[in-house]
Design brief:
This protein is of the alpha+beta class and 632 residues long. Helix content is 47%, strand content 16%. Strand 3, helix 19 and strand 4 form a beta-alpha-beta unit. The protein is elongated, with a radius of gyration of 30 Å. It starts with 5 loop residues before the first helix and ends with a strand.
Length: 632
């Protein structure tokens, strides 16, 4: 390969700067959800030396993933322990992939094809979208390019030792995301097609290297896993796959940017399409260029091994997903990304030899600028508009709320953060998983803010990361400080409150003396809101316990139980001495009739055993299973 000239180096530098600008710019305009948080939590543990990851996060059916993505994401966290470190690292790896694409194309098809291919890779909207988010599959591009380049070395240039990185990279890519199984299929086809470069010795070394990368996960499955291997093999439920053309359409989408408006969701896409106007037709221009390149490859299939290699690369990936046991998603086809850019670059070089180069470059440059503009308009759009079913919750708003909480803690307003979320368990609750990561180094607890308001004795910072509820107003009414993080249009704001010492409000009816339960919980007061569909209980926690307590509430009219509601309350594993809790219990009173006074019977039981927690008398002896409150 000829040495890169100065003008060519300048062009490559400009392409890489453009790719980096689109991939690394505005890291706060990145969606950040539970899976990203759980993946990053494992990587953070590994970066801090707490444990070496032998498994990844669980899939949607409960089967653990390989730990390869955890290993990769732990690298930037060694240097900078921040969400943005992992986000920017994803963009950096994908920018390097653009550079590798240039290098590969230049080596086999010349600098003009390389410039065109790399430019298209740099600005393709779906390629950029899959380079800006903490997501295992977004790491694939650099491994796929490494796999392709090492394959060309091994199978085209006859450098048999390169079979080792070729097979190892395919195996690691498969462990990053199972969709990269298509690379293993491709490697098998390369071994059959380029048999003259076959070597049992190097194939043995390749298999050994690939096996070594899997040993940590195999150790987990056979030694550490709490479930038998047969459970994982039987997981997955019913199949929704079969023969489908989705693989072909997804390949076109990823290459051309077609239907990038899907990121704006089902309610906003028409507004976005109106913003980009005729630029929405650019994917079809690129389709013609890509198809032309594939035709050129087809004509050269007998005379050009690199062309044959690229066609097998593309065909193996697409054919793997033409029939697949599950529904084929867009990101499954990510291993195809470089191929159509390469084909398009070769087609452009062919045009440059036959038409006026100035006109060809000008027309091509307009399409590149247009695709970059589409992405920038999209980024600005999702930064301002809520996009249900499209671009997810922005990380910048989450980090702004967390920063407020951290500053107030540093200013000694409190020493812990209460996160009002969709649940209390980060392992299963989405919002809790997000803030478990963001507040990793800050003392924090989780509250199901839909029906629970907790008031620690020594005060706290409350981060309300959910919409307002019948109970959330109690935090605002009793806070020393209150700041609001306004999010995108039509999204609920995030509220941050600073609660003072002994901030728990007094309800309308105080219970004196306060009943004491066997788990040392006290019932302190209540408030009748049955006309609004529920009622409130004020109570003080007991000693923390590794059990799950639930409340039962019975509405009694004329001695008959006419309605019942049960609730988990506030998890006993999170109780701190002095916590006062206000719980909201909704009642369905649509069919309830009867004159007052009504009676509410409230008690607690252990879940799931349903063992009752009795009330204690003055001598600490159990005497009844519930406390009765008369509602006039």
């Amino acid at each position: 390969m000829k040495r890169i000239q100065k003008h060519e180096a300048l062009m490559l530098g400009a392409i890489l700067l453009l790719a980096a600008f689109l991939r690394l710019g505005w890291p706060g305009i990145t969606e950040f959800k539970a899976d990203e948080a759980r993946l990053l939590m494992l990587a953070w543990d590994m970066a801090e030396g707490e444990r070496f990851a032998v498994r990844g996060i669980s899939s949607s059916v409960g089967v653990p993933n390989f730990p390869a993505s955890v290993w990769v994401y732990s690298i930037p966290l060694v240097i900078w322990k921040h969400v943005h470190a992992a986000t920017l690292f994803t963009g950096l790896l994908n920018t390097i992939a653009v550079g590798l694409c240039y290098w590969m194309v230049r080596r086999y098809w010349g600098w003009r094809a390389a410039v065109a291919a790399a430019l298209m890779f740099a600005v393709s909207p779906w390629a950029v979208a899959h380079a800006r988010k903490i997501w295992a599959q977004n790491l694939l591009a650099i491994f796929v390019l490494g796999w392709g380049i090492s394959g060309l070395f091994a199978f085209h240039e006859g450098r048999k030792c390169w079979l080792v990185p070729h097979i190892v990279l395919a195996t690691v890519a498969f462990q990053i995301h199972l969709a990269a199984v298509s690379l293993l299929v491709g490697s098998g086809l390369f071994l059959l097609t380029f048999r003259r470069h076959f070597s049992w010795k190097w194939l043995l070394y390749s298999g050994l290297g690939a096996f070594l990368t899997t040993t940590p996960f195999l150790y987990y499955l056979f030694v550490q896993s709490p479930r038998p291997l047969t459970d994982y093999l039987s997981a997955g439920g019913s199949s929704s796959g079969g023969v489908s053309s989705n693989a072909i359409w997804h390949t076109f989408r990823l290459f051309s940017g077609w239907q990038i408006h899907a990121l704006t969701g089902g309610e906003q896409f028409e507004t976005f399409l109106a913003l980009i106007g005729p630029l929405a037709w650019l994917p079809w221009v690129w389709l013609v260029l890509g198809a032309g390149g594939l035709l050129l490859f087809g004509r050269q299939v007998r005379t050009s091994e690199p062309a044959r290699f690229l066609l097998i690369w593309l065909g193996a990936t697409v054919l793997t997903f033409i029939w697949f046991p599950t529904e084929v998603e867009l990101h499954y086809l990510l291993p195809t990304l470089p191929v159509l850019f390469v084909a398009s670059g070769v087609a452009l070089a062919w045009l440059l030899d036959r038409w006026r180069p100035v006109l060809v470059w000008a027309g091509f440059g307009c399409t590149v600028a247009g695709q970059a503009a589409v992405w920038l308009v999209l980024l600005g759009f999702v930064a301002q508009q809520s996009t249900p079913g499209g671009f997810g919750e922005l990380v910048r708003h989450q980090l702004e709320a967390v920063h407020l909480a951290q500053v107030w803690i540093e200013d000694d307003f409190a020493h812990e953060v209460l996160v009002a979320a969709d649940g209390e368990e980060p392992e299963i609750d989405n919002v809790a998983a997000i803030y478990e990561l963001h507040l990793r180094d800050i003392p924090h607890r989780f509250v199901n803010g839909a029906d629970t308001a907790v008031f620690p004795q020594d005060g706290a910072i409350v981060l309300q990361a959910m919409p307002d509820s019948p109970i959330s107003s109690y935090w605002g009414e009793n806070a020393l400080l209150h700041e609001t993080v306004v999010r995108r249009e039509d999204e609920h704001s995030l509220h941050v409150y600073a609660l003072p010492f002994m901030a728990a409000p007094i309800l309308e009816n105080e219970i004196n003396p306060a009943p004491l339960l066997a788990n040392w919980v006290n019932f302190l007061g209540y408030e009748d809101r049955l006309t609004e569909g529920g009622w409130l209980l004020r109570w003080r926690v007991g000693a923390p316990a590794p059990v799950d307590y639930h409340f039962f509430n019975h509405l009694i009219i004329d001695g008959d139980r006419v309605a019942q509601t049960d609730s988990a309350g506030f998890g006993a594993s999170q109780w701190h001495e002095g916590d006062v809790v206000i719980s909201y219990f909704p009642f369905d009173l649509a069919d309830v009739d009867g004159e007052r006074p009504w009676v509410v019977r409230t008690g607690m039981y252990v879940y799931p055993s349903l063992e009752n927690v009795p009330l204690l008398d003055e001598a600490a002896n159990p005497f009844t299973d519930a406390f009765e409150m008369s509602l006039p």
